[in-house]
Amino acid sequence: MLLKRVVPHAVLLAYVAAVLFPFVFVLFSSLKGSNVEIAADPFGIPKTWHPENYLEAWVKAKIGVYFFNSVYLSFTSALTAALLSAATAFAIIRMRYPRIGRWIYQTVLIGMFIPGNVLFIAQYLLVMNLGVLNTHWALFLPYTAGALPLGVLLLAAFMKSLPGELEEAAIMDGLSSAGLFAKIVLPLTLPALVTVFIVNFLGAWNEYLLANFFISKDALRTLPTGMVGFRDAFRTNYALICTGIVYSVAPVLLLYAFLQKQIIEGMTVGSVKG
Amino acid sequence: MKHPMRNPWIYTLFTVPTLLLYGMFFLWPMLSSAYYAFTDWNGLENYRYVGWSNFAAAFGDPDFRRAIVNNLIFIGFSIFVQIPLIVLFALLIASVRRLRGFYKTTVFVPSIVSTSVIGILWGFIYEPEVGPLNRLLALFGAGPVYWLAEPKWALPAVLIANAWQWMGFYIVLVLAAILAIPRELHEAAVVDGANGWQRALNITVPLIMPLISVVVMLSIAGGMRVVDIVLVMTKGGPVGATEVMASYMVNEAMGINPNYGFGTAIALIIFAFALLLTSLYQLTFGRRTEGGYF
Amino acid sequence: MRKRLGIAVLILLVALSASLAACGSGNKETANAVTGDAGGASPSASASSGTGSEAGGTDETKAEPFTVSLRHIQIGEAQKFRKAILDDVVRKTEEEIPGLKFELDGVEDQVNRFTKLPAEMAAGNPPKIFDLFGGAGDALKYAKAGRLLDVTPIIEELGIADKFLNLSQFTLDGRVYGLPIGGSTEGFFYNIPMFEKYGIKVPTTLEELEAAAETLKQNGITPFAMGSKGAWVPLMMVNTLIGRYAGPEAIDGFPAGTHAWNSPEVTAAFAKYEEWVKKGYFTKGELGLEYADMLNQFVTGKAGMMFDGSWRASVFKDPSQAGELTGQVGFFPMPPVPGGKGDQTFVNGNYSNGYGFSADLNERELTAVKAFIKNMYNEEMQLRGLLEDGVLPSMKLSGDALGKVEDPLVKQIMETMRQAGGAFSHFDSTVHSEVYKESEAQIQKLIAGRATAAEVTEALQKIQETANANP
Known about the structure:
The structure holds three protein chains of three kinds. Chain B is mainly α. Chain B has a domain at 63-116 and 146-286: Orthogonal Bundle (MetI-like fold), CATH 1.10.3720. Helices cover 71% and strands 0% of the residues of chain B. Chain B has helices at residues 8-36, 53-60, 62-95, 100-108, 115-125, 132-139, 151-179, 183-191, 196-225, 228-233, 245-254, 260-286. Chain B is globular. In chain C, helix 3 (80-96) runs antiparallel to helix 15 (379-389), helix 9 packs across helix 11 (264-278) and helix 18 packs antiparallel against helix 19.
């Protein structure tokens, strides 16, 4: 009987260990002194601690710069996408232009079916022709645009479920539609907004393909590209590479620790609906 | 007095920016791809219309055919290896009382990390001399395996790294569906004398079939989308062993001899493949499990 | 509640990283990028973007600030000496031209040559000054498309036009479009103590070389270090083997149509390489190793020899990079091969890496470029490159300037070049991009055992013929 209770846990714990071991390994390796030590005792706690690796990586890899770029880009594109999606969702669901609204909804829905990298080259050429290649606009625009279909979808679904009486009351009180949107609807959709924001923030934070090819100026690079460049420049210094990985992953894990419910919800519901 | 909800100015304000951005970065690229794919533009000289020759060249290139096969292997691996494991783990998590939150939270973690960082991470794990995997093998006396350098090991290595990243995501997804099954169904079965396995196979799994169907579709889409992890771990090598259609496209269009016409043709092929596979699935198996889960 | 906390964390992250980035990197370039990126980088040159944030300086002439973008490949430890020289030139030029500020952008060599620069050329917005490779696949291709500045008038004005040793790879129709910064030759670096330990003499014939490889192998040492993930690395040795087996003229002969890849001689060169691969003379798992890993193999004593370019020499006098091997490295050229065609004393000689300049310059940028050329391409800098960095000069240096070299390794390299009957280039600067691209794919196939030498050369000849038909 006991076995029956224990076996699932045993299996699951084994799986969790397999999932987590790379992170633990990287953490330990980042604090070790040399490659020899890492090779000799990969899973062991460092014999001597070398936190100076972190300082070295910060300087050599210019992590401060990349980190800032990533935060700034992810934040602005996610925020803009969230607001734009909310506005559009409100317009098509709540405002009284039902046929146009349906048409807009269908158009935006098509975007959900296009796999990420299909548009890559065409977007590259577009950005090139717009003359914003190698600026932050080159990433901001595609990231925001890319976040719109899902955002509109999710927020439209959410707004549909809002009760209509609140609106009627507000209109009675003389609010315009914009006022209604800003003062009543937006606060009510905050949970969904936050979810959309977080999902897009993470998406932009982790994005590699566009970030790698659309930006070549080092000062404008984001973290994923910067990390790969760092790895390529310091191939043989594994402790340093591990430090870089820790820098990239820690903020995301931190965010996850606080907002895991939203993150899981956002990512899973979003995929299923799409 | 016009109803405030019929205000055309606000409507325009609220929808035009979105439509503009979306049109520029989704619709226009699709259209321009369809155009450039039939030219041989390489960015430097004037281009010529070349009809279907880009497509012919692509399918005629054994490296591209290899890339198609690799994409299919990715998809096949996701469906036939990962999905059973995913369902198994989801069932296990659903079956335990304690630590459920812990399991759910931890297995999900890899899916929120950037694929490029995961590529670096696993590239390190697979490192022939210093990486932990070979050190582990050494404990058992097995020689160093050149995971990312040997054509026969590279693809499995990337497949495992990719699986590690995404399985947790799907497990949580399926878990939600399993937990949504009304308890009465299970309780009735228990009364009828069914044990855990029987309940799982005869009640749970059939009921979550619609979601599994979605997972299959997502796996197909995901398999077609693979590119970051390949580019970061192996750049498509060694000798094209891990090349997928998207990495082939990137290497062709952004490499030594940029050929945007050819690249966009490949992009269209990827799109067509994705549509084809998804429709195929819908028409054959999807229909049976149609239940409109959401 | 948690949600609020989470949002607070997010905002904190943004604020924290903003302040950290500002002070942590303490780099004006960052500040410029952050404040200036909203202005965008417009491709038209007439907007001399004044993103310099300095107020009027201490100069009497308060000139309006302007920036000139400079792309270089001197990143990473191994390039630090070259970077130092570049920094000095940059500084000197900035002092000379009021208001000038160079915006340096360091990119990895291969990435710049094969990814960034081609894309920028296509977009029509390359940096103003950039690292450029000569030859049909690079400089000449861009020159034909009108993207490069014709520097012939500048070098004539500065009086250095005839000081260059070899401008052929940057010259199109008699006009010069780029200037090589140094010369290089590709040959074998070897581990001196290791050779002594195993009683190996420096090989002067192919048999001796193979015997040396065999000896090392018997003793558990990899004969030739190799990292072939970047296919250009093994192609260095292949190129020299072609020069040996098929003769120096073959290298230029491919695009000219006078020599064929699938000729028996060229195939023999590939076959020899294939033979060595099969005998296990190269590092195991090489297809997963990068160029930097190859150096590591050699420096840590895992391999006894390494075929590389002379630009690597500066690494071996730097203890932080060469460790125990500092000053213990020697150089010898590929020995003559039995039955080889042409002068077997020829060595590989490249004058193909240097700087190019965008054709899209306004007046002020042009003055900056002229000053840059003046400060970079002179005897002083060339000598510094030779002494500090071990890079062979691309310009003629006086006898006593050359005599100043003390590093025995560099002396050995220079001696090798002096004793050679002549030099042949690397085919990556003579053939069309498509052919080069194919050669990269084919050599990896050869190494992986997926193609034989004959198949490789057949494939290459096919592409060459197509390329020759449509110039």
